[in-house]
């Protein structure tokens, strides 16, 4: 099925509320506009406001009564991990990894990877996620090729953070240049991890990221045992900290280390549902906020269990309140919504293109129906979006102005076939 041509233009007419996430465009920090239109042309946002005039051939979509907002940015995930959904539910991090990731990954060939990635990508899109930052483990080139093709053909915008051990680091260069660079919506990072004993590997990854002119994406201090050495000091010594560094989890960190991260300009991805599931701890998110460290929300693949960013936003709010006993602690619902959109775009260095409905940015847009059993009656819609919202409230999703979900259904996706294919792939991996 050929993709619709975004050059014709699409206008979302008469939305009850548009959350532009750009305070210069509307009221308050979220830049809200009531009863407004959103015009998308040539894959970009071109006009946002009331009674927008359109050229001939523009498709009009009735958005009356609905909420329009930017697509969600999942700042840290592992799309392949639909392969391990529901497994190791009673295990902590390292036991879970040894029971689930360790056995599964070597058994996944190109065909299985294609099926798992397509399933996760479709789940993300139907949930309103339009961009994923995907930390991809060490797999061979054929599996990487299947991986990149699957996510690219899904219609998602993606950042492919390719990881290899030191002995195979040349493969990262090949994946970045030969597989990711030619895609329409893909960009690359070099994946790494600040684990004990990884100093040489991290240094090599940082050097390669600089050589390729891409970002560096690392797991850092997810588990208390990760403090066995001085991981933050190791990153500093390796030249791995800077404005193009994205650090995932960052739970067991000291105040002095936070100060160092702030000075470096590095950004972080907060994965609350994964951290809860694996009992790894609670990220001191208010401390990051006080230091001005950029932060996005991540779902972390198989330990988030699904692509539901609404659940992640709610968890980000509730987890800090539960540990602080303070209902006013950061983030509140509006701040969590900002983390899931513009905050994620800032964390990955893409705020000039993504994260808000600002004219000139890419047309990654979500339409949400609040007239639903779980959402009505109207109180404060931005708060309700975080505390009440679910993927089934998402009626339409656009990436580059192309509809990927329309009228509540994914476009061009045979969902029963996708599920059946993933089930068959999982049977092969786990038998």
Automatic annotation (TrEMBL):
Coiled coil: none annotated. Residues 67-401 form the Amidohydrolase-related domain. The keyword Nucleotide-binding does not apply. The keyword Hydrolase applies. It holds the Pfam family Amidohydro_1. It comes from the Bacteria. Keywords: Hydrolase. This is Amidohydrolase family protein. It comes from Nocardiopsis tropica. The lineage of its organism: Bacteria, Bacillati, Actinomycetota, Actinomycetes, Streptosporangiales.
């Amino acid at each position: 099925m050929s993709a619709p041509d975004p050059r014709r233009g699409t206008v979302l007419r008469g939305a009850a509320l548009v959350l532009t996430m750009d305070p210069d465009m509307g009221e308050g920090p979220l830049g809200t506009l009531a009863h407004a239109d959103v015009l998308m042309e040539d894959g970009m946002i071109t006009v946002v406001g009331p009674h927008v005039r359109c050229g001939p051939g523009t498709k009009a979509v009735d958005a009356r009564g609905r909420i329009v907002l930017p697509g969600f940015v999942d700042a840290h995930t592992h799309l392949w991990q639909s392969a391990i959904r529901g497994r190791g539910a009673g295990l902590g991090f390292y036991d879970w990894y040894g029971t689930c990731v360790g056995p599964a990954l070597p058994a996944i060939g190109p065909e299985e990877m294609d099926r798992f990635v397509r399933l996760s990508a479709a789940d993300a899109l139907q949930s309103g996620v339009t961009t994923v930052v995907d930390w991809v483990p060490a797999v061979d080139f054929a599996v990487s090729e299947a991986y990149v093709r699957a996510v690219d053909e899904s219609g998602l915008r993606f950042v492919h953070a390719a990881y290899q051990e030191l002995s195979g680091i040349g493969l990262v260069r090949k994946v970045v240049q030969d597989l990711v660079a030619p895609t329409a919506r893909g960009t690359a990072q070099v994946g790494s991890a600040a684990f004990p004993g990884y100093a040489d590997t991290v240094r090599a990854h940082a050097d390669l990221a600089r050589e390729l002119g891409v970002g560096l994406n690392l797991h850092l201090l997810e588990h208390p045992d990760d403090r066995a050495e001085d991981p933050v000091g190791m990153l500093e010594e390796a030249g791995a900290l800077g404005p193009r560094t994205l650090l995932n989890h960052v739970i067991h960190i000291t105040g002095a280390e936070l100060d160092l991260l702030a000075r470096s300009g590095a950004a972080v991805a907060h994965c609350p549902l994964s951290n809860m599931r694996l009992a790894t701890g609670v990220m001191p998110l208010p401390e990051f906020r006080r230091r001005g460290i950029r932060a996005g929300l991540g779902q972390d693949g198989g330990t988030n269990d699904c692509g539901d960013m609404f659940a992640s936003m709610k968890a980000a709010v509730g987890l800090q309140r539960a540990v602080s006993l303070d209902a006013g602690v950061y983030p509140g619902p509006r701040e969590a919504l900002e983390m899931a959109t513009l905050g994620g775009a800032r964390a990955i260095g893409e705020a000039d293109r993504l994260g808000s409905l600002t004219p000139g940015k890419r047309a990654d847009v979500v339409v949400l129906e609040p007239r639903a059993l779980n959402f009505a009656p109207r109180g404060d819609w931005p708060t309700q979006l975080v505390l009440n919202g679910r993927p089934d409230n998402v009626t339409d999703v656009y990436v580059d102005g192309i509809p990927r979900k329309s009228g509540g259904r994914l476009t061009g996706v045979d969902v029963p076939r996708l599920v059946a294919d993933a089930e068959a792939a999982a049977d092969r991996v786990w038998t």
